[in-house]
Amino acid sequence: MKVGDRHYHSIWLADDGWGVEIIDQTRLPHRFEVVRLETLADACRAISDMLVRGAPLIGATAAYGFCLGLRRDSSDQALLQIGEQLVRCRPTAVNLRWAVERMRLVLAPLPAETRVEAAYREAGRICGEDVATNEAIGRHGVELIRRIWEEKEKKTPVNILTHCNAGWLATVDWGTALAPVYRAVQEGIAVHVWVDETRPRNQGAHLTAWELAAHGIDHHLIVDNAGGHLMQHGMVDICIVGTDRTTASGDVCNKIGTYLKALAARDNNIPFYVALPGSTIDWTLTDGREIPIEERDQDEILRVWGREEGGDLTRVSIAPEQTPAANPAFDVTPAGLVTGLITERGICPASREGLAGLYPEEAGA
Predict the structure, then answer these.
(1) Where are the alpha helices (DSSP H) in the chain?
(2) What is the mean pLDDT of the chain?
(3) What CATH topology corresponds to 139-363?
(4) 174: how many CB neighbours lie within 10 A of its CB?
(5) For 252, phi and psi rounded to 5 degrees?
């Protein structure tokens, strides 16, 4: 997407052809900073410290992490150790494991001296496929928005509620949940987005709102607990969120608080859709309760970043010093609460049968 007058992907090769550059998402929305990754440790830190976020982008970063690690040592042992180190960075997003396994599968049969060049080629393919995948998600998902707009006789914008960030910054380009929104704007469909702040990391406030503002899309930031109120008063037409892992039966794991939005949507008869690439489906799981839920540092809850009036960034405490915090980063929304899944292959019910219809080669159908 565009930042100023330049089109950016969220990850790209540096001009020297081997270094990797990313946008430091921990500095947004107040500062736009590009960070260069030169080692496997750099890539691991970018993933674990959330300089990059979103399942597809985490996977792309892991792929380039392989490239950087192999530059130092391309032996069989190094190939195994690089993958193990990357997988440990974040446990919930299945794209991380998917990217690691794909890189291993391509690189393991090759002679050590050819692996670096092959790794860069495969990482580039992963990134290119992600862009095409997300563009397709937008193409399919926009039809849902168009239908609502036509039902409203094109007189008022379609009000879309989203949670966390599933936009361009969560992928290589386009995004998942926001891809249909960007496509709708391209096609002249009037939209308005309710942006959940998404505590405790505030991905909605920091990233989604920043993306929408940069794109000139009408939106309002709301506190996480306002969604139900808006739904009760007819101010939400559709919910679209992303997912970090989806089971073969259609349960979806997304940022903490997604489950509550799905419950409110069901109570108010509002469609609740989840946008995802096929790489986010974990075909080994059928029950979302089996998904490992990342427990992050309590400081994410107890302290917040902000910009002072003078422009300086600062971090402040918001709770008593003696108060501990529990910080589960994700929750699971059962398939029964999901109206449908928007994928690069089309829209399907959130069920084993629905997913198998789109991905028969994966489901064993």
Answers:
(1) 40-48, 55-72, 76-87, 94-107, 115-151, 179-186, 203, 209-215, 227-232, 258-267, 299-302, 352-358, 360-363
(2) 95
(3) Rossmann fold (3.40.50)
(4) 26
(5) -125, 135
CA atoms of 127 and 50, how far apart (whole Å): 19
pLDDT (tens digit per residue) in 77-135 = 999 999 999 999 987 778 899 999 999 999 999 999 999 999 999 999 999 999 999 99
Query: Which of 224, 244, 251, 282 does the annotation list as catalytic?
Result: 244
pLDDT digits (tens, 9 = 90+) for 183-224: 999 999 999 999 999 999 999 999 999 999 999 999 999 999
Task: Please confirm, yes or no, whether 244 is among the known catalytic residues.
Answer: yes
Closest CA to 125 of 77, 72, 51, 67: 67
Give the residue numbers of the binding site: 53-55, 90, 203, 254-255
User: Which residues in the chain are classed under CATH 3.40.50.10470?
Assistant: 139-363
Start-end ranges of CATH 1.20.120.420 in the chain? 2-128
Does domain 2-128 fall under CATH 1.20.120.420? My reply is yes
Detail the residues annotated as belonging to a binding site for substrate. 53-55, 90, 203, 254-255
pTM confidence score: 0.94
